[in-house]
Amino acid sequence: MKARLKKWTEEYGLFLLVVILLVSGWEWIVRQGIIPSFILPAPSAVWGALLENKQLLFEEHLPATLKEVLIGFCLSVIGGLILGVAMHFSRSIEKVLYPFLVISQTVPLIAISPIFIMWFGYSIWSKIAVTILTAFFPIVVSTYDGLKTGGHEYRELLLTMGANRWTIFKKIQIPMALPAIFSGLKMSVVYCVVGATIGEWLGASEGLGYFSRRMSGNLKADAVFASIFLLSMLGIVLFLFIGLLEKQVLKNKNRFN
Amino acid sequence: MLSIKDLSYSFKNEGKSNPIFKQLSLDVKSGEFVSVIGASGSGKSTFFKLITGLLEPDQGDIMVEGQKTGKRLGSIGYMPQKDLLLPWRTVLENVLLPLEVTKEHKQARIPEIREWLSRFGLAEYEKAYPNELSGGMKQRVAFLRTLMTGRDLLLLDEPFGALDSLTKRNMHSWLLDLWGELKKTVLFITHDLEEAILLSDRIYLLQDTGIKEMKVTLPRPRSSQLIYQSEFITMRKELEWLIHNES
Questions:
Q1: Which residues of chain A have a CB within 8 Å of the CB of B78?
Q2: In terms of residue numbers, what domain contains B165?
């Protein structure tokens, strides 16, 4: 227990110290009146706004955003994996799809979102569409690249054993691609939070993005910061969750030396 | 068992073709241990890829068990230069891989594999992962995996090339002890003359100008102590003479 605590302090101690210093500095600056609080609210004020709106935030807006993020992420994962694998297996699919994938990422989200609102209205699907657009790309790319990585010699070895393409895919390429796929998933889940927030910002009736937009309209900087704080926490928690899953799945797979 | 007739192969690179084998022929009889020696760059590994069926010859025939089969892949047990053990699989799971590929019933073979593992000195490492094994152990696991393909002809591509000389010596003794009861045919690539003489019944020299053959007349069973005896040293001289008079 003591050893674990020591390791934990070594790992995160410095980061925590800097956070405490930053927050205290921030609080001090605002209290001294160097920056007016409607521009930069003090951390204590943000915390106060969080508590004041806790019912609204935790019972209405956070679940709404979480729902969009989770549905968007699941669809991105399914679609991304399918596309990545299809591109791996067929050169023509790869040749056709890859440019479209890149184009899809160069289209400014803010510009295309109104179109989604036109198509899907203010329903949850307009937000999910934005989420998917931001989140599926890292999954496709990491799956596709992961399946390509190395493994050439393993492939030949299995061929000499009489293996077909599918067996090689199952026994060698999937396990070898998993670390890359997990990196893609971690990026993607964070992008999901960003995507959902942008979607809500552009047109929604609930969600943390909608809440922060309404609050900024009312010049309530502390409440805006409170929702930003929650959004970033949501991203962190989801990221850590995927990281934990990765650790479990790759327990023996990261024995590459 | 294996018969190669007039094999030619060239690397094609940007329209230019670069021949590495011309009219190459060799035979391996059932139960023989045959080594192929060649300097680095003489195309040893390409030669093995041709035999396993990973590559197709430009001209000539490669016959396995008298059959000029179109598909050689899967008919020969191939042990590559690197151990190529899958790092996410335990020793036992790695050895089971060939059975999974051919969709054989794995469970029925596990007692047999356990026995092999203990004969290979790996009984306690059944559940270990490759990164927990020494170089010699990895090579033994890879060899057992090759045996599990169930093929009669084994192609070993410099299997001990990456080992230190002490470990290599141990592996030689181990393989010589095992050889009598293996009942396999082996084609063995190496650039170590001593190793080739010690292990083989016949040696082929692979050189730019063609292929040369030498018989190793040392009686079996052999021990690794043989290298200090005069017959062995005579053979070694003869082999070196062959190499130098070729070029």
A1: 157, 160-161
A2: 1-7+18-76+152-247
Residues B235 and B199 in one domain: yes
Query: Could you tell me the pLDDT band of residue A256, with boundaries at 50, 70 and 90?
Result: very low
- Give the pLDDT score at A91: 92
Instruction: Report the pLDDT averaged over residues B166-194.
Output: 87
Domain count, chain B: 2
CA distances (Å), origin B235, targets B36, B123, B169, B222, B240: 16, 38, 19, 15, 9
In chain B, what residues touch A171 (CB-CB under 8 Å)?
86, 97, 100-101
Task: Kindly report the average pLDDT of chain A as a whole number.
Answer: 91
Last residue of a domain, one of B125, B150, B175: B150
B chain contacts of residue A158, beta-carbon cutoff 8 Å:
97, 101
Fill in the DSSP letter of residue B67.
Answer: B
Residue A256 to chain B, least CA–CA distance (Å): 6
Q: Which CATH superfamily is domain A64-249 in?
A: MetI-like (1.10.3720.10)
Asked if B131 and A158 come within 8 Å (Cβ–Cβ), the reply is no
Segment A163-176, tens digit of pLDDT: 888 999 999 999 99
Contact residues on chain B for A162, CB-CB shorter than 8 A: 73-75, 101-102
The per-residue b/e assignment along A117-127, b for 16 or more CB within 10 angstroms, e otherwise, is beebeeebbbb
Give the closest-approach CA distance of A168 to chain B in angstroms: 9
pLDDT over 80 at B247, yes or no: no
Q: What is the pLDDT of residues B7-64, one digit of tens each?
A: 888 887 777 777 777 788 888 888 899 999 877 677 777 888 888 888 888 888 888 8
Contacts of B176 (CB under 8 A, 6+ apart): B198, B199, B221, B222, B223, B224
Per the document, the length of chain B is: 247
Q: How confident is the model at residue A150 (pLDDT cuts 50, 70, 90)?
A: low
Are B98 and B145 spatial neighbours (Cβ–Cβ below 8 Å)? yes
Question: Residue B11 in 3-state DSSP?
Answer: strand
Interface of chain B against chain A, CB under 8 Å?
49, 52-54, 73-78, 80, 82, 84, 86-89, 97-98, 100-102, 129-131, 149
Q: In whole angstroms, what is the distance from residue A202 CA to residue A117 CA?
A: 8
Domain ranges of chain A: 64-249
Contact assessment for residue A78 and residue A84, using Cβ atoms and an 8 Å cutoff: no
Q: How would residue B246 be classed by pLDDT, with cut points 50, 70 and 90? A: low
Cα A10 to Cα B43: distance, rounded to the nearest angstrom? 53
- Chain A positions in Cβ-Cβ contact with residue B86 (cut-off 8 Å): 154, 171-172, 175
The chain-wide mean pLDDT, for chain B, equals 86
Question: Which of A152, A153, A160 is the best mutation test for B, with the most CBs of B within 10 A?
Answer: A160
Contact: B87, A257; criterion CB under 8 Å:
yes
